[in-house]
Each structure stands twice: as structure tokens, then as C-alpha cells.
Amino acid sequence: MILHTLNAAPSSPAFAQCLELAAAQDCILLLGDGVYAALPGSEASERLGSQPARICVLEADAAAAGLLPRLGAVEVLDYEGFVTLSEQYPRQMAWY
Amino acid sequence: MIYSLLVLSSPISGHGSRHALHFAEAAIARGHQVNRVFFLDAGAGTGNGNAVLPQDEGDISGAWRGLASEHGLELVLCISSALKRGMLDASEAERYEKAGAMVCEEFSIAGLGQLIDAGSTAERLLTFGG
Amino acid sequence: MTQVQRRKQLIVLRQTPYASSLARSATDLALAMGAFEQDVELLFLGDAVLQLLDGQAAEAIGQKNLGKILASLPLYDIEFAYVDAAALARHGLVGEDLVLPVRPLDAAAIQSLMAACDHLLSL
User: Is the pLDDT of residue C5 over 70?
Assistant: First the structure.
């Protein structure tokens, strides 16, 4: 069980690597430039939707990017939620 | 739980430094222990006491210092990353005959052993970059 | 009392050798962990496989030769590295092109390797 913190724009190699390696029992937390993958109708959100891991998005970064009013059905977490994820998923892989 | 954090990002560029800071705050608030925050590579700039920020920009380094004073959080800059970036404490400034110390007192300068040591007792090790 | 356990650590390298200082920092960390007799392994993902390319002459750009440093890892009991097999193929490289013995892994094997570690350090 890995918490993948995805702080990379959807066009970056890190983004593609993360999606390739995230497994069904893992969680991907979108933060920093990674939040843009939560834009509904985007190519990246389709790619996210077709992989098996749980998807969450960091609220502050989504707000900064202008995404909060646009988000679809995705788990939105604050930093306490981020810490809770790190409790549930014993290891973290940072993608940036 | 015991956490160690590794920060690779500059405090003035990207997201990683801010993520690490707010993660540390939230972890402490949830009753976890953060045994050490190790700043490596561009992260070492976080200890720069001479940085002057515009008033409308968040002072991440200042917030780390506040967290250190309030909770006794241990903040360590990687020595080789720090020296390369002109980040010297008083003893390094004297050793290299540089004009003065740049590193704020809440930060110490040490080798990678401090990261390894922290990680060996931590149940969680999180990396922050980008 | 903190109980000290031996953590299984994986350094995940993701950068090309000379574009940023991160590759060098990752190598420094690997050497330090080796010197402190840690349980550590290395995984070179994506373009990071280029760090292992034989014949680097980084003095041409005023840098330390990363390939040479990586070749010294066996002195620190890090005898081999895991590499992203797809990335190696994408760059037209084979094991003989590299400074260190490697074990190429496909995506499923990389997933298993990551899932079996206590701490992942991504640089």
C-alpha cells in the first residue's frame, strides 16, 4: 500500500510513471501541479479514471489553481486528511 | 507515530517546501512526533536567515522557524547542500573565512547521517520535492 | 523508548545525470547509506537509467563524473541496481552499456519492489 504524492503536471514524465506504477491497493494524492489532472473532461482525468488506485486531491492546491468550483466526484482533503492518508498507507512515493 | 521528513525543494520556488511545512503542522496537531526534518539539495535554502520576502508572499522559512520554537522540531540542513549555496553557520563561516553566518539559529547543519539516523527510527519517511 | 529497526530502504532515482543537482544528491545519499551499513537498494526509473551510462567524461562540463561514483557502489556493499527495463530499451541500451551490474524490471516487478520497502526516497 503506497501513497503516491503526485506533484507533477499531466504532461510530465513523472505523471506518466506514477500512473503506470500505482496499484489497486495504492492511493494517488494530487497536489501542486498534479491537481490539474482533476479537471473534468481533461485527457489526464480520463487516464486517472482508467487506473485502479484511489484518487484524492489537496484542497489548498486545487483552490489556488481555480479547480474547486470545477471538481467532479473526487475526494478533496486538507492537510489533516493528507496526514491521515500517510497513516493508512505505510509508504510514500513522491512524484515531482 | 514517528515521522521523518526529507525536503528537497527551495522555499521560494515550487510546492514541495510548503507541502512539507503544512504536513508537519498537521502531523503534530494529530499527535504524531516529527523526529527530524532534513533539508537536502535546494531544500537547504530554507535555513537562509537573510532572505527578505515581499509582504504579500508567505514566509515558509519563517513558518518553519516558528514550528521549531513552538514544538522543538529539529531542522537540519545537509552540510554539503548548504555550503554550496553559501549557507554557513558561525563555525563554518569562521572555518572558510567568509563574512558571516547566514543560517538561522533554529536550523543546524549536519551530514546525511542525520537523515539516515532519523529514518531508522521513523515509522514514516516522507519526501517532498518539486 | 524508540525501538530501532532495520528499515528496508529504496532510493528511487528519476533524473538525468547533469541537468540538476538532484542526481548527485541521490548518489551522495546512496553512498552515505552504504557507508552506514543500511539496508538500501537503488532503482533507476525513466531517464535516470542514463546516470549509469558507461564512458561519461563529465570533466568536460566541470562536473564530477557521476558514472564513476556510481561504479564505486559495490565498495559500499551495493552490488547492483534495479533499472526500469522499458526505459533502458527506449534509450537503446543494454546492461553492457552500464557502469554497474543491473537487474532490469518491468512495471509489475517495480510495483512489487516498491511495495516491499519500508521507506522510499524519491530523487
Answer: no
